[in-house]
């Protein structure tokens, strides 16, 4: 259980495009938006945990055999998402940290969940750690408990990222600076996508 929790922390600590996205949403849309995005990322880690503990051997071997295709596909997705985010950050005026409505929060949850599921860093981390994760696991209760431990570890870091982003937003009030940070975040995500293609 402790190993699964530490693994959840490890996944979330790896600074990648999802961490950048959560910090950015906390900065531009407030703490609640950042937290919802963080929950989406942690739920994706929970999903991978369930897969690893139930049909892990099959999933891991399939991912391993098709790792190159997954890397290219996820890199393209990250690249396109970064372009979309960049375009939005150039066009839209930054919000003054008013919390967005519930439909935006649902969108933040699902978009972060999907981006985490296809994130090459998440796939690589689960591939690398799968040998330690996939041990004789008996029963649905143990599978859910271990996956919940991964979720708890991941969520604790994701929440810190959201708080960091929202805290930045309290100190940075200049719309030009916020716009610049949004542009920088989108470029960083684009670079993650390009790195995956190379």
Summarize the topology:
Blueprint: H1 2-13, H2 17-29, H3 31-54, H4 56-65, H5 67-91, H6 102-117, H7 120-133, H8 140-171, H9 175-197
Helix pairs in contact: 1-7, 1-8, 2-3, 2-8, 2-9, 3-4, 3-6, 3-7, 3-8, 4-7, 5-9
Defining traits:
198 residues, mainly alpha, globular
Description of the structure:
The chain has 198 residues and is mostly helical. Helices cover 85% and strands 0% of the residues. It is built from 9 helices and no strands. The chain is globular, with a radius of gyration of 17 Å. The mean pLDDT is 76.
Q: What is the terminal separation in angstroms?
A: 36 Å
Class from secondary-structure proportions: mainly alpha
Average pLDDT reading: 76
- Total of helices: 9
The radius of gyration computed from the alpha-carbon positions, rounded to a whole number of angstroms, is 17 Å
> Quick one: overall form?
globular
Number of distinct beta strands: 0
Which spans have pLDDT < 50 for at least 5 consecutive residues? none
Strand content bin: under 5%
Q: What's the helical proportion of residues?
A: over 70%
Instruction: Sketch the topology as an H/E string, one letter per element.
Output: HHHHHHHHH
Main pleated sheet: none
Count of all domains: 1
């Amino acid at each position: 259980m402790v190993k699964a929790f530490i693994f959840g922390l490890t996944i979330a600590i790896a600074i990648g495009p999802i961490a950048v996205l959560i910090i950015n949403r906390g900065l531009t849309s407030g703490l609640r938006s950042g937290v919802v995005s963080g929950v989406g990322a942690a739920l994706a880690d929970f999903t991978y945990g369930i897969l690893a503990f139930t049909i892990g051997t099959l999933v891991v071997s399939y991912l391993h055999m098709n790792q190159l295709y997954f890397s290219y596909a996820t890199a393209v997705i990250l690249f396109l998402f970064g372009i979309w985010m960049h375009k939005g950050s150039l066009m839209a005026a930054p919000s003054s940290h008013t919390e967005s409505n519930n439909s935006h929060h649902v969108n933040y949850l699902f978009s972060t969940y999907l981006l985490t599921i296809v994130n090459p860093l998440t796939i690589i981390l689960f591939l690398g750690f799968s040998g330690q994760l996939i041990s004789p696991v008996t029963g649905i209760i143990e599978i859910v408990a271990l996956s919940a431990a991964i979720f708890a570890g991941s969520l604790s870091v994701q929440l810190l990222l959201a708080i960091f982003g929202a805290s930045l937003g309290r100190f940075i009030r200049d719309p030009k600076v916020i716009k610049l940070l949004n542009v920088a975040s989108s470029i960083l995500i684009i670079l993650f996508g390009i790195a995956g293609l190379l």
